[in-house]
Specification:
This protein has 20 helices and 16 strands. The chain is α/β, with parallel strands linked by helices. α11 (318-325) crosses α12 (327-337) and α12 (327-337) packs across α13. The protein is elongated. Bound molecules: 5'-O-[(L-methionyl)-sulphamoyl]adenosine. Residues 16-19, 27-28, 30-31, 56, 236-237, 239, 268-269, 271-272, 300-301, 308 line the site of 5'-O-[(L-methionyl)-sulphamoyl]adenosine.
Length: 532
C-alpha cells in the first residue's frame, strides 16, 4: 500500500531492534506489547499499518557473547533470533517486518546511507578517548559513572578505557537544527519528561560522536577505510529503513523510502532515548531525509520493587509468564497497571489480583451473567430495544455515548492504562447497574419492557467494552464478541476491517437481528492455591 501523505491513512511504527546477546527478556516484550497494541488500535481506525520489529546483531557485545559460547557471531545470532520470533508468536504480536541487521540487503542500505552522509562532509577522522560501556555500546561521560568506573545502567560491569582513531559524525553541526525541529514539533518526543531531558541534553551543547571502531571485526567495514568497523548504533538505526524494502525490491534507499517512510512512531525504552531523539534525527537530516513523527520513551520495569538483573537473580521470563497465565493476561497487566512512560513494577501476587479482578470477575462474570439473564428472561434473544428507548439519565448510556471518543484519545496518546481504566468504568458500572435494577425482580413483577431495557443496556455496554479492549486483549475480546453474536476475529486483520471504529465504537450498535452465541467463560480465574 502506498503512502498518500494528504490522507494519512497509513501508520508505520517500530519497536527497537533488539540485541541478540541473550534471550529476549521482559523489557523487550514490554515495548513489543505496547507496539502491537498501537498497531491493532490503528487497524481499528481502518488504517493500513506496518509494524516493524527485529534484531540488532553487530557490535562488541554480540561478538563477545558469541566468543563466550565458542561460536562464530553469525551462528550465534542465528541461534538466538528464533527465540524472539517464537516469543512474539506466543505474545500474539502481529508484526509485519522482522529486520535483521545481518541481512545482506541491510548492508547495501547502510553503505548507501553512509555515502550520503560522507558526501555531505559530515564524517571525519579523529581520535576518540573515553570510557566505553560494551553493554550499552556507548561512550560515557566520567561524571555519569558510578564508583569504580561502573556503568549506571549496568552497575555490575566496568566501563573500558578507549583511546583510538575513529570516524566521527558531525553531530554538533545539527544542534540548532534539532532545537528548531523540537520547537516546531512539541510532541515529537514523548512523554513531556523525556522531551525535557532531551532538550537539556541538546542545550548543553552537542559533541560529535564516533561512528567507527577499530579492533572490532563483527560489523560492517567502513567503506572508505575497512580497518574500521561501523559503530553498531549507526548500523542498527538504519535497520528501520531496511525493513521498509518489499521482498522483491533492490536494496536501495530510494526503494525503501517509497512506501511507508517516514515512520509515524518509534517506540523505545528511556535508556535509548538519545540515540532515537538526537543522533537518529541528525543522521536523517544529514542524509536529507524526513524525520519520524514521534519518539516515545517508556519507563523501566522492576520486579518486586527492585531493579531486574541476572546477577540479582530476579529476572522475569516472559515465556514462563505466558505459559502460566496466557498472553492476554500478560499484555493486560503490563499495559493497564503501568502508566506508559513511567517506571513500573511487576509483582506476581499483584499480577494475579489485577487480572482476576478485572478480567475474570468484572468483565468475564459480567458477560456470563448477562448472557444467562438474557436466556432466562428473554428467551436468549437480544431484546428489541433501540438506544432512543433508553432514558438519557441511564448511567450506562451516559458513559457509553462518550466512551469511544475518550478511549480513542487515550490510545492515541499511548495512555494504555487510561484507556483500560475508562473501559473498566463501564464494566464496573454495568455490574452495579444490574444489582441496582434487579432485573430478576422486575421479571417477577412482569415488567418485561423494563427487563429488556436493562438487559439491552448491559449487553451493549459489554459489547462496547470488549471492542475497545481488543487492542490489548485480542483473544478475550474475540471470544466475547463472538458470544455477543459478531463474526469478528480481532486476530485477523481482514476480519477487523469489518468492525471499523467509527461504527463499533458507537453506543447502540447491538441489534436484535443478530443471534447470541453460547456463553462460555472468557477468562478463567487464576487460583492462587494451585500456583507454586
Ligand atoms: N539494540 C538496541 C536498540 C537498537 S534500535 C535501532 C537495544 N536493544 S535492547 O535489546 O538492549 O533493548 C531493547 C529495549 O528493551 C529497549 O527499548 C529497552 O529500553 C528495553 N528494556 C530493557 N530492559 C528494560 C526494563 N527493565 N524495563 C523496560 N524496558 C527495558 O537497546
Amino acid at each position: 500500500m502506498n503512502r498518500v501523505s494528504t490522507t494519512k491513512n497509513t501508520f508505520a511504527l517500530t519497536t527497537p531492534l533488539y540485541y541478540v546477546n541473550d534471550l529476549p527478556h521482559i523489557g523487550s516484550a514490554y515495548t513489543t506489547m505496547a507496539a502491537d497494541t498501537v498497531a491493532r488500535f490503528q487497524k481499528l481506525l481502518s488504517k493500513s499499518v506496518l509494524l516493524v520489529t527485529g534484531t540488532d546483531e553487530h557490535g562488541q557485545k554480540i561478538e563477545r557473547s558469541a566468543q563466550a559460547k565458542d561460536m562464530k557471531p553469525q551462528q550465534f545470532c542465528d541461534e538466538i533470533v528464533p527465540n524472539f520470533i517464537s516469543l512474539w508468536k506466543l505474545l500474539n504480536i502481529q508484526y509485519d517486518r522482522f529486520s535483521r541487521t545481518t541481512s545482506p540487503k541491510h548492508a547495501s542500505i547502510v553503505q548507501e546511507f553512509f555515502q550520503r552522509v560522507w558526501d555531505k562532509g559530515d564524517i571525519y577522522l579523529g581520535q576518540q578517548k573515553g570510557w566505553y560501556c560494551v553493554s550499552c555500546e556507548e561512550f560515557k561521560e566520567e561524571r555519569e559513572l558510578l564508583e569504580k568506573h561502573r556503568c549506571p545502567i549496568h552497575p555490575t560491569k566496568e566501563v573500558e578505557w578507549r583511546d583510538e582513531e575513529n570516524y566521527f559524525f558531525r553531530l554538533s553541526k545539527y544542534q540548532d537544527k534539532l532545537l528548531a525541529y523540537f520547537d516546531s514539533k512539541p510532541d515529537f518526543i514523548q512523554p513531556e519528561s523525556r522531551r525535557n531531558e532531551v532538550l537539556n541534553f541538546v542545550n548543553q551543547g552537542l559533541q560529535d560522536f564516533s561512528i567507527s571502531r577499530v579492533n572490532l571485526e563483527w560489523g560492517f567495514p567502513v567503506p572508505e577505510n575497512p580497518k574500521h568497523t561501523l559503530y553498531v548504533w549507526f548500523d542498527a538505526l538504519l535497520g528501520y529503513i531496511t525493513a521498509l524494502l518489499e521482498p522483491d525490491d533492490e536494496p536501495r534507499l530510494e526503494n525503501a523510502l517509497k512506501n511507508w517512510y517516514p515512520f509515524d512512531l518509534h517506540l523505545i525504552g528511556k535508556d535509548i532515548l538519545r540515540f532515537h531523539a538526537v543522533y537518529w534525527p541528525a543522521m536523517l537530516m544529514s542524509a536529507g531525509l524526513p524525520l519520524p513523527g514521534k519518539v516515545f520513551g517508556h519507563g523501566f520495569l522492576t520486579k518486586d520493587g527492585r531493579k531486574m538483573g541476572k546477577t540479582l537473580g530476579n529476572t522475569i521470563d516472559p515465556i514462563e509468564l505466558i505459559d502460566k497465565y496466557g498472553a492476554d493476561a500478560v499484555r493486560y497487566y503490563f499495559l493497564k497497571e503501568i502508566e506508559f512512560g513511567k517506571d513500573g513494577d511487576f509483582n506476581e501476587v499483584r499480577f494475579i489480583d489485577v487480572v482476576n479482578a478485572d478480567l475474570a470477575n468484572d468483565l468475564g462474570n459480567l458477560l456470563n451473567r448477562i448472557l444467562g439473564m438474557v436466556k432466562k428472561y428473554c428467551g436468549g434473544k437480544i431484546p428489541v430495544v433501540t438506544t432512543e428507548h433508553i432514558d438519557n439519565d441511564n448511567p450506562l448510556k451516559g458513559l457509553g455515548l462518550h466512551l469511544g471518543e475518550q478511549v480513542k484519545t487515550a490510545y492515541e496518546a499511548l495512555a494504555f492504562s487510561q484507556a483500560c481504566n475508562l473501559v473498566l468504568s463501564i464494566v464496573q458500572g454495568s455490574n452495579k447497574f444490574i444489582d441496582d435494577q434487579a432485573p430478576w425482580s422486575l421479571y417477577k413483577q412482569t415488567r418485561q419492557q423494563e427487563v429488556e431495557c436493562v438487559l439491552y443496556t448491559v449487553l451493549e455496554s459489554v459489547r462496547l467494552a470488549v471492542y475497545l479492549l481488543s487492542p490489548v486483549i485480542p483473544n478475550i475480546s474475540t471470544a466475547a464478541y463472538q458470544q455477543l453474536g459478531f463474526e469478528v476475529n480481532f486476530n485477523d486483520s481482514t476480519s477487523v476491517e469489518k468492525a471499523p471504529f467509527d461504527i463499533h465504537s458507537k453506543w447502540g450498535l447491538l441489534s436484535s437481528t443478530q443471534n447470541l452465541g453460547t456463553p462460555q467463560p472468557i477468562f478463567k480465574r487464576i487460583d492462587l492455591s494451585k500456583n507454586d
